[in-house]
Fold this sequence. Notes:
Layout: E1 10-14, E2 17-21, E3 25-31, E4 37-43, H1 47-50, H2 60-83, H3 96-123, H4 132-154, H5 158-178, H6 185-188, H7 199-215, H8 222-231, H9 233-249, H10 254-267, H11 276-292, E5 304-306
Parallel strand pairs: 4-5
Antiparallel strand pairs: 1-2, 2-3, 3-4
Helix pairs in contact: 2-9, 3-4, 3-8, 4-7, 5-11, 7-9, 7-10
Amino acid sequence: MMSRPRFNYGGQAVMEGVMMRGQHHMALAVRQPNGGIFIHEEPLTSFFYTHPAARWPFVRGITMLWDALVLGTRALMKSANVALQEEDGSGEELSPAMIALTLLLSLGLAVAIFFVTPVLLAGLTDAFVASSWLSVTIEGLIRLAFFIVYLLLIGLLPDIRRVFAYHGAEHKTINAYEDGAPLDVDSVSRYSTAHPRCGTGFLLVVLVVSIFVFGFLGRPDWLWRISSRVLLIPVVAAVSYEIVRLGAAHCRNRVVRLLMAPALWLQSLTTREPDRAQIEVGITALQHLLVAEGLAEPEPAASHQPS
């Protein structure tokens, strides 16, 4: 098997496709209604990718947030524009204003469900719980329960199940690449849909770390208690990201594997076994990313339509 660069390539499932992020570029591959594969590539020019400080420990976790909130959302909306087109390529695209509104509404709903509501529910126990640490633990357990129930519920939707299958295709492709295996459907299909650097596992670590971070604040007044949960998200994400990186680097260690088991189990809620066509999309995204990064030669394919 050939050796691979040590940079941690990663990605995200989108509607009918996969987005792969590299060191200097991103590549998006989306299955079109006519059966072809739409390709979009762009350089990563933001401060979060280009400045040396962005690679510092505890700072690079902010890049993870940027990926999820900005780059990931743009990729998701672009994939929606492609996947929802008619077979002849016609159809209206989502406007930048609609994309921005969707992002704001999604963030607002997420904050309300996963941050504000657990604080309010845990606050109902204040009269019966003397320890602030226990109160924060109850809040964290409520937040974790909400997260798991949310994943279970959205997993019932057929469209989301397809996104989860593309999530599995993304993991299989990255696993094969990191193992030095050939990037073809037969080879990639043999790999697992679980990956130690998965964003789902990252979110679980965030939920656990937040209990410890918020615990140091005690039980201040309601305004600060709620606002601190939002303001400290970058701190929690930074610490969590370093824990995930450390776990991924030592994933062959038995103790580390045991500690990572809950995060890997949680991935079973957000991944599905992909079919061959979905794996092809994941491979296509990574291959175009590697070409853009100067690590591979382009492989022309008639069914691929670049943006």
